[in-house]
Amino acid sequence: MVRIDCRLKPAVELNREIRLAAERGEGEVHLIHPEGRHNLAVGILAPVRVVVCGTAGYYCGGLCDGVELEVHGDAGWGLGENLMSGRIVVHGNAGSAAGASMRGGFIRVEGRAGPRAGISMKGGVLVVEGDVGAMSGFMMQKGTMIVCGDAGEGLGDSMYEGAILVAGRIQALGNDAVAGDPEPGDLDLIRKAGLDPGLDWKRVVSGKRLWHFDKKEWDLWKIAL
Predict the structure, then answer these.
(1) Where does the chain have alpha helices with state H?
(2) 15 near 44, Cβ under 8 Å?
(3) Alpha-carbon dihedral of residues 48, 49, 53, 56, nearest 10 degrees?
(4) Is-contact 134 114, C-beta < 8 A?
(5) What is the DSSP code (8-state) at residue 205?
């Protein structure tokens, strides 16, 4: 196990050391004294377990492929952005845009997440055990977001594909988003994530009215735009 002190090096050097440790076959890297540092464990493209021993700043775990990341604290905005594969667990809250544009893998936030969680998701699973803020799931294209708490207004605005599963209250759906009952596969995924399938789950998907532009429906598009 490798220990790296985040107080002594810039983020570029920290990430370089993580990559070198992974290339050497080290199984685990601990980042000590993170103290809210930004860009921790970014661009890690080899299978390695990274433990952030405290709170991380923005873009933690971004642009990674195959990493197993655990944050023992909160994380700033952009958590796991563009994650290709791997697993990220935050034992706290996350800022805005958690899981933005993720293409695969699994992200779990044990607390709450800010606005725009899961925006432009292209795959993978994002789990938020608490609430999510406004405009979460905006322009979602694929994948699944699971919210155990409440969702702010604008949920699923202009989404194309994918599904958002919400157990709590939805303040307001976004443009062209519709809510219905979960499907059997959704409940299987909820169980697999270690969550309670017996909660009052709602499935939010695209109503598909904005998939194709028709000048005869310009009023509808003006609302969306």
Answers:
(1) 11-23, 184-192, 218-224
(2) yes
(3) 70
(4) no
(5) E
How far is 211 from 123, CA to CA, in rounded Å?
19
Q: Hey, what domains does the chain have and what are their CATH numbers?
A: 2-224 (2.160.20.60)
pLDDT tens digits for range 53-78 = 999 999 999 999 999 999 999 999 99
The string of pLDDT tens digits covering residues 158-203 is: 999 999 999 999 999 999 999 999 999 999 999 999 999 999 999 9
Please give the single-letter amino acid code of residue 158. Answer: S
SS3 5: strand
Phi then psi for 18, rounded to 5 degrees?
A: -65, -45
Report which of 64, 65, 34, 70 is spatially closest to residue 50, judged by C-alpha positions.
Answer: 70
Separation CA 147–CA 52 (nearest Å): 24
| Residue 162 identity | G
CA distance linking residue 172 with residue 152, whole number of Å: 7
